[in-house]
Automatic annotation (TrEMBL):
It is a multi-pass membrane protein. It is an enzyme of class 2 (transferase). Gene3D superfamilies: 1.20.120.1630. InterPro entries: ICMT_MeTrfase, Isoprenylcys_mtase. The chain crosses the membrane at residues 6-23, 44-62, 74-93, 133-163. It comes from Ancylobacter koreensis. This is Protein-S-isoprenylcysteine O-methyltransferase. The lineage of its organism: Bacteria, Pseudomonadati, Pseudomonadota, Alphaproteobacteria, Hyphomicrobiales.
Length: 195
């Protein structure tokens, strides 16, 4: 098996893993009553940007020749590093869902029984799920030897992050007030002790 085929398999396995991690949590939160949902159309557009970068573009690379002109030489080191990064991103993704429980949602929402989670991986950063998605995007950049499909995840998810993070933090402040303000003062957004 060539390294390129192996990279496609790892990418596909990572996406399937992501889906399998999220599915049970998605089912659980559907039963929760939403009391605050913000910017539905904006959220749909941002989620589409992320899906285009992390899903559709690499899928086209993996299943067609449309981006072949942008392929570049690939090494076993890139494959190994990309694979390990993807595995770590999936671990963090699962852990964030487990720590959030029913407080999780795919869009900007506050549930009826919502509470501020500050334990588990949330003890170190306020948005570890975004950290997991950025790790996925980094894994894609390393794993996919293509100048379009590789960086597409960072671009697509980066757009979602840049246009959502301020609104999400405002929603948390509106909901949890001083409790969230104190939590923000002692935690970083994405990378412990850095940002």
């Amino acid at each position: 098996m060539s390294l390129l085929v192996a990279a496609k398999i790892v990418w596909a396995a990572g996406v399937i893993g992501w889906y399998l991690i999220r599915l049970p949590f998605e089912r659980k939160v559907k039963r929760e009553r939403v009391v605050d949902a913000r910017d539905r159309l904006r959220e749909l557009i941002l989620l589409s940007c992320s899906t285009l970068g992390l899903g559709i573009t690499p899928l086209l690379w993996a299943t067609s020749r449309v981006f072949n002109f942008a392929n570049y030489p690939y090494s076993p080191v890139q494959f190994a590093l990309g694979t390990l990064t993807f595995i770590f991103s999936l671990w963090l993704f699962r852990r964030t869902h487990k720590d959030l429980g029913k407080n999780w949602s795919v869009t900007l929402e506050i549930k009826d029984s919502h509470r501020l989670i500050t334990g588990g991986v949330y003890r170190y950063v306020r948005h570890p799920m975004y950290s997991a998605f950025f790790l996925w995007a980094l894994a894609q950049l390393i794993l996919i030897p293509n100048w379009i499909a590789g960086p597409a995840g960072i671009v697509g998810f980066g757009i979602l992050y840049l246009f959502r993070i301020g609104r999400e933090e405002k929603m948390m402040l509106d909901t949890f007030g001083d409790e969230y303000r104190a939590y923000s003062a002692r935690t970083a957004r994405l990378i412990p002790g850095v940002y």
